Amino acid sequence: MAKATLERLAADPAIRHIMQKHQFSVGVLTELAPHEQPHLLGLNVNAGQAIKLRIYTDRYDGFRNYKEIRRVLCHELTHNVWGDHDNNFKELNSQLNREVAEYERAAIEGAHSLSGQPSSSGGYSGSPSELEGEAQVHVLGGSGASVSSLQRESPEDRRRRVLEATMNRLRKEEEEIEHSCGTGRTA
User: Fold this and answer.
1) If we measure between CA atoms, which residue out of 19, 8, 9 comes closest to residue 114?
2) CA-CA distances (angstroms) from residue 124 to 20, 89, 92, 151?
3) Considering Cα of 175, then 122, then 32, then 1, what sign does the dihedral take?
4) Which of 25, 39, 82, 159 could disulfide-link 89, Cβ–Cβ 3.0 to 4.6 Å?
């Protein structure tokens, strides 16, 4: 299963798109086993000579979420350009993750694929409304807002709330990834 995950990442149209766009190359994409540097989620060796990603959970009892692993891959690809986790790094990492999301959104809408052929899935099996629903569930669970007030909410307000919740979640995930990165560690 770890090999299949690595192969899926290597063939992921959104990843291939950003690699082509930014002219990234990776010599070896491999697994970082839980017993190897257990505090890390990913490691970029020599600006892309090898990228190691944690695929298994820490206890070897399952696999990490594919999209989380892919975010770590984007983080490690950023180290092909920037070593330290400075503002330049953070800007490019955010750009790569944005480009992956935009590519998938365009693929869902049938706009394009890496080969230029229309695509219907782009690696995502749900619909944009499912993404909104997922974000709403998370916000509703912790907001304390009444159901009736949420029903009166305008579509623009709902989108803004979903965007804020998503951005907060992504910011927290990126902080975790940065904390668990072995490349460009700063004291």
Assistant:
1) 19
2) 20, 27, 23, 28
3) positive
4) 82
166, β-bridge pairs: none
Tokens describing residue 175: 């902080």
Per-position b or e across 49-72, b if 16+ CB within 10 A of its CB: eebbbbbbeeeeeeebeeeebbbb
Q: What is the pTM of this model?
A: 0.62
Residue of 84 and 174 predicted with greater confidence: 84
* Active-site residue set: 76
What is the mean pLDDT of the segment spanning 50-62?
88
Element at 32 (helix H, strand E): none
Q: Is 25 helix (H, G, I), strand (E, B) or coil?
A: coil
Residue-wise pLDDT tens digits, 137-185:
333 344 444 445 555 778 787 777 777 777 777 777 777 777 767 765 5
Confirm if 49 and 43 have CB atoms less than 8 A apart.
no
